Structure formats: C-alpha cells, structure tokens
Amino acid sequence: MKNSLNKLKELLYKFKDLANIGFANILTSGISFIFWLYIASILGTENYGELSYLIAISGIVSIMSLVGAGNTLIVYTAKEVKIQATIYFIAIIGSIVGSVITFILFNNIGISLYIVGYVIFGLVTSEILGRKLYSDYSKYMITQRILMVVFGIGLYHVFGPPGVLLGIAFSFFPYVFRIYKGFKETKIEIAQIKPRFGFMINSYLLDLSRTFSSSVDKLIIAPLFGFAILGNYHLSIQLLTILSILPSIVYQYVLPRDASGLSNQYLKKLTIILSVGLALIGMIFGPILLPMFFPKFTEATEIVRIVSLSVIPITVNFMYISKFMGEEKSKIVLIGSVIFIISLLISILILGNNFGVNGIALSLVIAYSSEALYLITIDKFLYKKPNSQ
Q1: Domain range summary for the chain, segments of one domain joined by +
Q2: Helices (H), 191-329
Q3: Number of DSSP helices (H) and strands (E) in the chain, helices first
Q4: CB contact at 8 A, 285 and 242
Q5: pLDDT tens for each residue of the chain, 389 residues long
Q6: Largest alpha-carbon pair distance within the chain?
Q7: Which residues contact 309 (CB under 8 A, 6 or more apart)?
Q8: Buried b or exposed e, range 27-50, using 16+ CB within 10 angstroms
Q9: Is the sign of the CA dihedral 301, 33, 272, 230 positive or negative?
C-alpha cells in the first residue's frame, strides 16, 4: 500500500506542470463556456452573431499587432534568450497603431481596447509559458476569465450588448504590471531580432493564418448567411472549444519541451487516441443538450453534431505543430495554416451554398482534416528512416 502511494506521488509530481496547465485550461474553458452560453441566452441569435463578428475582427487586428510575439517568446524564453523587452516594445507599439486604425474605421471603443488588452495578456502568458511557470499561468488565466465574466455581464447591464465586448477588453488590462517587470529585467535591443527575424516572421504569418483560420468562417458567414446563422454556428463552436481543451492543454505543455529537446511522444499519441472519444461525446450529447438550454438556436443542433468530428484533426494538428515549432520549422506550420484557410473558404462557398448549415459545419471538418493530412505527410517525408529510402 505504501509503495503504491509513493508511486502515485511520484507520478503526480512528474506531471505536476501538466496538471497545472490542465487545471487552468479546464477551469477557464468551463468559465468561458458558461459565460458564452449565458450571453447567448440573453442576446439571442442576431446580437450573439454580431458580437462574435466583432470579436473576430478584434482578434485578427490583435494578432496583426502581436507580430509573431507569442511563439517567439515561448521558444526563445525557453532557450533563455533575454528578448522580452524587445518583443514587448514592438508588440505594444503595434497594438496602439492597430487600435487607432480600427477606431477610425468602426468608431467602436470596445474593439480598440480589446486589441491593446489582448496583446498585453498574450505577451504575458507567452512569457510565462516560456519560463515554464505553469502555476503562475494558471493563476493569470483563471483570474482573467473571472474578470471577463464580472466586467462582461456587469457592463452589459449598463451599456447593453456593446458592454459585453467592452467588459472582455477590460479583463485583459490588470496584467500590465508583468510587462513593466519585463522592461525592468531586460533591455530593448532591436539587434536581438536580426538573427531570429526569419523565425519571428514565420511565427507572425503563422499567427495571422491561425487567427484567420478561427475567424474567417465568421467573417464569411455573417454577410453571406446572416447574423442568425452565425449565432447558431458560434454556439456550436463553443462546444467544440470545450472538446478541444485536452489537446490544447497538452500542446501548451509539450511546446516548451519540444523547444528544449524533451519531446514526449507517448503523451502525444495518447492524446490523439483520446480525441476520438471526445468527438463521440460531442456528437452524442451536443444535439441533446443544446435544444434543452437554447431552444431559440434551432440550427445549432445539426451543426454541433458535425463539427464535433473536428476535434480529431485538431488534436493531430496540435501535436505536429508543437513538434515543428519546437524545431523552429515554423514555415511548415504556416503552409498548413494556409491550406486550412483555403480549404475552409472553398468548402463554405461550395457546401454552404448547396447544403446550408450542414455544409458550413462540414467545411470546418474538411479544413482541419486537410491541414492534418499535410502535416502528417510532411513529417513522414522529413523523418523517414534511412532504410526506407
């Protein structure tokens, strides 16, 4: 009995970092899921769809402002390169420029504040993951989600639907102190960028492509099919996000280790196997639960049944992206993202127009699967055994 307890303690200690990330992601995803379900119930399909449209725009400009800082900070902080202040400076200037331009175009202060706040929080969490400070990461993620709920719901009751976006934006700002700390600990040295410029540009293009991957569907669905369909689609994507918690946790855990040469192939393979079960859970229980709690979102029932399948290729993509990014082969991942976007655009235009919401949902599965097929093929080609040649 004592030996069993000791082995359990050793196992828990061995995976304590993964447990910290897992706890943070599960709790924050749960908070976000409940928050978005509540917001959906009070806004209705039209307003909920419009909100998701504005967040998609904010997210794209935020990533444009980050200029590849996320993966750059994770990888080079893990390699103990003192690059924080330089990256902070570039990204913050970019966020200010982006927020000003979007305010001129949309006259919406919520979008502008979201951009600056998102960049601040993105820099902070990336730096923490690079340092492998998983306990701090958990605290920051959880408190940000709590603030999102408090500010988002609170400001909704003050300003109506626009208050939700404003509240989400405010939830990012309390972490600016970590940026200040980074400026004190490291110096701004633009020369540090030169030898890493290629990786940073590829990371930037990758971030842009990944953000377009998660936003381009919303940007297309809104004008072609209306905010009501987009609202149903976005609600289904919230469930897919919950199903993707496990692969997301593992990705955040293995990326710094892949960058440090400490890959965990067993964990990656196990995660891919478990994703099949997650897909089945979404396909079976999603269509049962959504009509019970959201009777107005009638189209979401069929959408969620199909999009749940996406969790399998999403998991495969996460595992291969971690491997390639850890080896600084970001160009491969970038091409995979471009394949995803092209597949999604073509599929939505063809299948969406011919099969409606079911075609839109199937387009997402096809796009993720196309990216996964590319990454698997490239991996086999790059790492094939000598005796197979």
Answers
A1: 14-380
A2: 197-225, 227-243, 245-259, 265-293, 300-307, 311-326
A3: 17, 0
A4: no
A5: 555 555 545 544 555 666 666 777 778 878 988 898 899 889 888 898 889 889 989 988 998 888 777 777 877 777 777 778 888 888 899 999 999 999 999 889 999 999 999 999 988 888 888 877 777 888 888 999 999 999 999 999 999 999 999 999 999 999 888 888 878 777 777 777 777 777 777 778 777 877 777 788 888 888 888 888 888 888 888 889 888 888 888 887 787 777 767 777 788 888 889 999 999 999 998 888 888 888 878 788 889 999 999 999 999 998 888 888 777 787 888 888 889 989 999 999 999 888 888 899 999 999 999 999 999 999 888 766 554 43
A6: 68
A7: 279, 283, 365
A8: bbbebbeebbeebbeebebebbbb
A9: positive
User: 19, 78, 46, 38: which is closest to 226 by C-alpha?
Assistant: 46
| Type of residue found at 35 | F
- Nearest in space to 200 (alpha carbons), one of 117, 122, 90: 90
E-state strands within the chain: none
Tokens (6 digits) for 144:
């940000």
Say how far residue 28 (Cα) sits from the centre of its chain. 13
pTM: 0.73
What's the token pair of residue 203? 């990371």
Q: What is the rounded distance in angstroms from the CA atom of residue 212 to the CA atom of residue 216?
A: 5
- The region that residue 160 occupies, defined by phi over 0 for left and psi between -120 and 50 for alpha, beta otherwise, is left
**C-alpha dist (Å) from residue 90 to 86, 104, 288:** 6, 22, 47
Length of the chain: 389
